[in-house]
Amino acid sequence: MFQLPADLSKAKILVTNDDGIYHDGIGVLESVARKLSDNVWVVAPETEQSCKSHSLTLDRPLNIKQIDEKRFHVNGTPSDTVLIAINHIFKGEKPDLILSGINFGRNAGIDVNYSGTVAAAAEATMLGVPAIALSQVLADSSTGWSVPMAHAESVIRKLIALGGWPKNTLMNVNFPHEKAGIVKGVQIVSHLGGKTHDEVIERTGIWGQSYFWVGHSAYEHRGGGTDIAALEAGYISVTPVKLDMTDYDFMAKMHTRLSL
Questions:
Q1: What is the pLDDT of residue 219?
Q2: Could you tell me which residues come within 8 angstroms of residue 209 by beta carbon, excluding any fewer than 6 positions away?
Q3: Could you tell me if 67 and 43 are in contact, meaning their C-beta atoms sit under 8 angstroms apart?
Q4: Strand, helix or coil at 102?
Q5: What pLDDT shows up at residue 8?
């Protein structure tokens, strides 16, 4: 089990994201983190890294730029950023907690497989640091931050108050697109749900060649008990996400039916 900070006020907290060091969402999360502890560090990608999932950069060197005493950016992916923060910037003195976000757009359902925000939390989890990914649902390509500003601190405190999480598990939190005062509460839910189709836009360049933009994906609308359903109903969703992707139920059936 992860041993969570017994006293958040004394915890070393690392804030990161996938939208880049200068995005509004990481500023919101840093302000939330400073309500929890005075020892807050920010290490984030230099530029936008959305949907980079859990990729690492292996084809070029990476650089760290220090902005001030406890703020840095890395010219790589979210996973690069967390890996370098833990192994180099902190030099063996790991943070007590990593907060990733607040993402500009939800990371619910199958989105978690693409998300750089979730991947940053996953990299932290792999490296032995408890982590929470936080995201804000968009509506009409815009968002406000009133819901996480009002509720993120409380949600984080309650998750830490659990005392311990399985070592291969991170927490994924999504905030609905609502006014802070009318959020209905928090639901502990799954991220069950698949894609029904993708939007792939084909266009023609000036020399006649085709090129493509990957657009939005459409997702199944599941019933109660899922993060997408909870968000659409006006709840904050919290999902414990396991890094072990083994299908144990089917593996047991394979053992009984196959002789390899």
A1: 65
A2: none
A3: no
A4: strand
A5: 95
Measure Cα distances from 131 to 118, 231, 260 in Å: 9, 21, 39
- HSE-CB of 85 using CA atoms within 13 angstroms: 37
Judged by DSSP in three states, 123 sits in: helix
Element of type H or E holding 148? helix 146-160
Alpha-carbon distances of 5 from 87, 105, 120, 157, 250, rounded to whole Å: 20, 28, 20, 10, 36
Domains for the chain: give ranges and CATH numbers.
Answer: 2-193+222-257 (3.40.1210.10)
pTM of the model: 0.92
For 5, which DSSP code?
-
Using alpha carbons only, give the angle 127, 99, 71 rounded to the nearest 5 degrees: 90
Q: What gap in Å lies between CA 83 and CA 8, rounded to an integer?
A: 23
**Rounded to an integer, what distance in angstroms lies between the CA atom of residue 231 and that of residue 177?**
8
Q: Chunked in runs of 10, what are the mean pLDDT values of the chain (260 residues)?
A: 90 96 96 98 91 85 95 96 95 93 92 93 96 91 83 97 94 91 92 71 86 71 81 95 92 82
Q: How far apart are the first and last CA of the chain?
A: 34
- Return phi, psi of residue 207, to 5°: -100, 15
Q: Give me 156's structure tokens.
A: 């984080």
Q: What angle do CA 26, 195, 209 make, to 5 degrees?
A: 85
Nearest Cα neighbor of 172 from 114, 223, 106, 220 is: 106
